[in-house]
Write a structure and sequence with these properties.
By secondary structure, this protein is α/β, with parallel strands linked by helices. It is built from ten helices and ten strands. It has helices at 3-26, 32-55, 60-81, 116-119, 131-147, 164-178, 194-200, 238-256, 261-270, 278-283, and strands at 110-112, 121-129, 153-162, 183-192, 207-209, 214-217, 223-224, 227-228, 274-277, 289-291. The strands form two sheets. Strands 1, 2, 3, 4, 5, 6, 9 and 10 form an eight-stranded mixed β-sheet that branches. β7 (223-224) and β8 (227-228) form a beta hairpin. α5 (131-147) runs parallel beside α6 (164-178).
């Protein structure tokens, strides 16, 4: 091979290498630092080859062999610098794919004086709704209802859910108490699953929450945290049992939150968890205002 051909070959290799590296960098499989280091390596290799060509102009075949060897080294350097394609980050799936779309609620939220929790009687629903708590709350509701006092009772709800059978015990006795004296419900921190049915047992104008309260609707499941949901006396096909529980809870939620009854049915149909906060709870008509 003649010497001018070797020189043109070297120029072509250098230009092509830089273009390839630029394309790789543009596809985000190479960082800018790797791009600069690769370009510097291309320049160093080409300078070394051109030095060899001009030092030994009478040996074009040897210069061509050195050019091919330099091209192989250059390709190896580029392959080592290229990162493997990174998988796209997984998108979070714990949020529902849709939001309840309601017309803008008119008026302003009502603020409940926190002094009512000091001057009134407070019944606390917290933790997992289970037999012991349901029995204690039921007895407390009956005792307060028998007093025939006008002193308000505040149901403080801080629960992530629990047994829907014992939720029914609590809700029923809160209804009895509300027929005898003023009852307010205040959701604080978290009100989810069975807690939404307990909140619905109090009339809408007397339901409140803190702004930071986290709410959640979902359909019943047979197990949650190792605990079976529903009354133990129900037997037979588990699917029939869960259908009974869902029908019961859905009826309570539709009666307690009539403005979003159809949306609640959709949540039960899709089986998704629907999370929302205090301001959205007010916007949906679930609470009348905030505890401030």
């Amino acid at each position: 091979m003649k010497l001018p051909h070797v020189v043109f070959f070297e120029f072509g290799v250098a230009i092509l290498a830089i273009l390839v590296v630029g394309m790789i960098c543009g596809s985000r499989r190479m960082t800018w630092a790797q791009f600069l280091s690769t370009v510097i390596a291309i320049v160093v290799i080409q300078v070394a080859l051109f030095s060899f060509i001009f030092l030994y102009p009478t040996k074009p075949d040897s210069a061509f062999a050195a050019s091919v060897l330099g091209l192989i080294v250059l390709l190896g350097f580029i392959c080592a610098a290229v990162d493997p394609p990174r998988p796209a980050p997984a998108k979070p799936t714990d949020q529902p794919r849709w939001r309840i779309d309601r017309p803008q609620r008119q008026g302003n939220a009502v603020f409940l004086d926190p002094g009512i929790m000091i001057d009134g009687v407070v019944i606390t629903v917290s933790g997992d709704v289970a037999r012991e708590e349901a029995d204690a709350i039921a007895a407390q509701c009956l005792r307060l209802a028998a007093e025939r006092s006008t002193k308000p009772v505040v149901i403080r709800i801080t629960t992530g859910g629990g047994d829907t059978g014992y939720e029914d015990v609590i809700s029923s006795h809160i209804g009895i108490l509300a027929s005898r004296r003023p009852v307010y419900a205040v959701a604080i921190g978290r009100c989810a699953s069975a807690g939404m049915a307990i909140l619905a047992s109090v009339p809408a104008p007397y339901r409140y929450c803190t702004v930071g309260t986290q709410f959640m609707f979902h359909r019943c499941t047979l197990h949650s945290g190792g605990q079976v949901y529903g009354p133990e006396h129900l037997s037979g096909d588990p699917r029939s049992r869960i259908d009974i529980l869902n029908a019961s809870v859905l009826a309570k939620l539709r009666a307690g939150y009539p403005e979003i009854a159809r949306e609640i049915e959709k949540i039960f149909t899709t089986g998704e968890d629907y999370h929302f906060d205090g301001p959205e709870a007010w916007h949906l008509g679930i609470v009348h205002g905030y505890l401030m």
